[in-house]
Amino acid sequence: MDIVPRSLRASPAPLIRASHAPRSGPPLWRDESLLRVRAGVYTVRAAWEALKPWERYLVRVHAFASARQDAVFSHESAASLLGLPVFGHPRAIHIFDGRRSRSVTYGDVTVHTSADERTNCSIAGIRVSAIEDVVIDLARVLPPAFGLAVADAAARSFGLDTPRLLDLAAAQQTTFGARRALWALSRATPLAESPAESVSRAVIEWCGFPTPALQTEHGVDGRIYRSDFCWPERKIIGEVDGWMKYSDTDAAAAAEAVRAEKRREDALRRQGWHVARWDYAGALRVEALRGALLSAGLQPVRRSEGAALVSVGRNTRSM
């Protein structure tokens, strides 16, 4: 049974339709405070410039939805609306049309089709592909570490079941990206709390390190603290920062969170733990993560997978 979300993510910047502008005033394209998102749809320039790349993409998706109410969004476009991870600013708006014989691209829009029967749902007037299809589609085409991040987020946010996803993927007629999808879907877990953790987990595996325990509980100063990655038999903990782990809207709260992390680390070290720390960018660069774990005393137990490591952070589907 398909999972239907209760809501979709709203546009992070206001959208103005040219057709709704007062006829007595000047045309919107003359207003320098506005930015054209697509034909007939504008947003506030200052608001757009303050957005992160994936937020700008969500504005583009909503702009397309306002102009094409019959569109069924898929791939990154559906992921953006559903609140699943989107990496960078995807180049294309992705929609699905099962009536087509083949997928086509025109301008910045890619229209996908499939030989398999697909379902979609309408939420607040916007139609999106079934979440299961969105996850499988992206697992086939994204770099594997990013596909894993999408699958992890779907498992955590929507309770998607890994065996069900694997069965659905195996039943599809297309074989494109099948091995890539199998790798990501078979490792999906709701325990990963951020894309940074998902990408780090992929890099840890490809570097040849032992498989870590996730979200292990530790008693620290009378409180329970959960580590991102843990190797209990080696007394090593791995922590990844970044991707909204600390608030980027409240500097004081972010600073206090960092201080609290430092206090917890000091307490863990007093208990004999070695703590390795890196950030999301360090995971993408691979060597920062690898170096942090090696410095903490963790040693590889198998050969690294060079080809897989090269794929980390290289996403040609985004600008």
Structural description of this entry:
By secondary structure, this protein is of the alpha/beta class. It folds into 2 domains: 15-187, no CATH class; 195-310, VSR Endonuclease (Endonuclease, Chain A, 3-Layer(aba) Sandwich), CATH 3.40.960. It has 12 helices and 13 strands. It has helices spanning 45-49, 53-67, 75-82, 131-141, 144-158, 162-171, 178-187, 195-206, 251-270, 280-285, 287-295, 306-310, and strands at residues 15-17, 34-38, 41-44, 72-73, 93-96, 104-106, 109-112, 120-123, 126-129, 213-220, 223-231, 236-241, 274-279. A 4-stranded mixed sheet has the order 10-11-12-13. It has a 3-stranded antiparallel sheet with strand order 1-3-2. A hairpin with a 2-residue loop joins β2 (34-38) and β3 (41-44). The mean pLDDT is 92.
Characteristics of this structure?
globular, 319 residues, single chain, Endonuclease, Chain A, alpha/beta, 4-stranded mixed β-sheet
List the helices and strands and how they pair.
Layout: E1 15-17, E2 34-38, E3 41-44, H1 45-49, H2 53-67, E4 72-73, H3 75-82, E5 93-96, E6 104-106, E7 109-112, E8 120-123, E9 126-129, H4 131-141, H5 144-158, H6 162-171, H7 178-187, H8 195-206, E10 213-220, E11 223-231, E12 236-241, H9 251-270, E13 274-279, H10 280-285, H11 287-295, H12 306-310
Parallel strand pairs: 4-9, 5-7, 12-13
Antiparallel strand pairs: 1-3, 2-3, 6-7, 8-9, 10-11, 11-12
